[in-house]
Amino acid sequence: MARQLKGIPQPVVRRLPKYLTQVQDLRKAGVEWASSQDLAEALGLTSSTVRQDLSHLDILGISKRGYEVAALERALVGALGGGRTWKVAVVGAGNLGCALAANEEFREKGFDVCALVDTSPRVIGRKVGRLTVEDVAALAEIVRERGVGIAMLAVPASAAQEAADKLVAAGVRGLLNLARAHLRVPAGVAVVDAGVLENLQELSYLLHLSRA
Amino acid sequence: MARQLKGIPQPVVRRLPKYLTQVQDLRKAGVEWASSQDLAEALGLTSSTVRQDLSHLDILGISKRGYEVAALERALVGALGGGRTWKVAVVGAGNLGCALAANEEFREKGFDVCALVDTSPRVIGRKVGRLTVEDVAALAEIVRERGVGIAMLAVPASAAQEAADKLVAAGVRGLLNLARAHLRVPAGVAVVDAGVLENLQELSYLLHLSRA
DNA sequence: TAGATTGTTAATCGATTAACAATC
DNA sequence: TAGATTGTTAATCGATTAACAATC
What we know:
2 copies of one chain form a homodimer. With 212 residues, the first copy, chain A, is an alpha/beta fold. In chain A, 46% of the residues lie in helices and 17% in strands. In chain A, helix 1 packs antiparallel against helix 4, helix 2 packs across helix 3 and helix 7 crosses helix 8. At the A-B interface, helix 1, helix 5, strand 8 and helix 9 of A face helix 1, helix 5, strand 8 and helix 9 of B. The structure holds a DNA duplex (24 and 24 nucleotides).
């Protein structure tokens, strides 16, 4: 009966967090049922897309009522990693790295940021939120001892590949790459690229387009 | 002869900043020519995709040599907003907002962060890098006087729509949404969503998948 | 020249949308 | 019951990949 969690298409996977946010909001608002149409309007999609998307999850809707909000939340959480907590390390204690390390929301949502490392003696030892900046030389040990599964890379582009290599060698299996560099990793390691500057450049294109 | 800059498909637009990064690296390294195959290897694409992508730009390659690095850089910069500088406001002076406001790289790349605003009297007046946190009440005036075209939203999800409405009313035409909320904006306003938590959740899915 | 590499067309692949019988 | 909404199939749309004549 359990649907396969494997092989959800990437565009769908990227929408799942958005469904989850919306569904959690609905639950907090005391809403018990949501139709594909309701969800579509809230997220700017079509109801058809919503039903297709949710068909990948372990949930069935009910005619005339839609999807049960609580059940849908469980199904979304289940698909997005099963509700387990990941240990996360932040590499790079610059402005961005520190901001990420200090963000309490991640912990609430299942991402326990348990280490912040840097190369610079000037920042090693500094307190950031509940963490202390540690020496990147101890990275392998930290990853092993604390069971770090995911790392966020907030280092300069020139240092990104080397940091990624170290992390992978230490056993990290997922990288969130915030650096402006294309990372090469062995099969079995997942990389998700993020980058605010890239996002700004996309915006710039869109604005340039509509002004032209 | 000038190719239309209009209507480059979104997946291509999202790759353009990556080409630009790579091409700038090549130029700095003194490389003068790059073939589609070279670029493909550096970015993890196929040479066919690269040629299709670059066919949207105002540049032609040359058989047997590839693309001239300097010309390609100009074409990419041109497509991504024409090399003009955008005035950018950051809304929300929490950890993330301050980190973004203090980032000098944006300015170098044509995004002049010229304002940082917040609602809280506790942070208004505080210095962040070269900026001082200002009262969100002055937002409309700031946008108008400084010619702000793009805003980065680094506010709690519950405040995001209201902030977006204010920004749009004040004349901002592009929003980079870092909040966990779906923004509704009028036609003619561009929104790009970013969200580190969403990226972590995507990673979580991928890791869950490969472990299962 | 011979061969490498382009720009572009055609084929394939995949995602979104539309449509509708099933059903609550 | 009648009608709203589902899950799923089929149609459409769009992106990626393959192939190749043109060309430097």
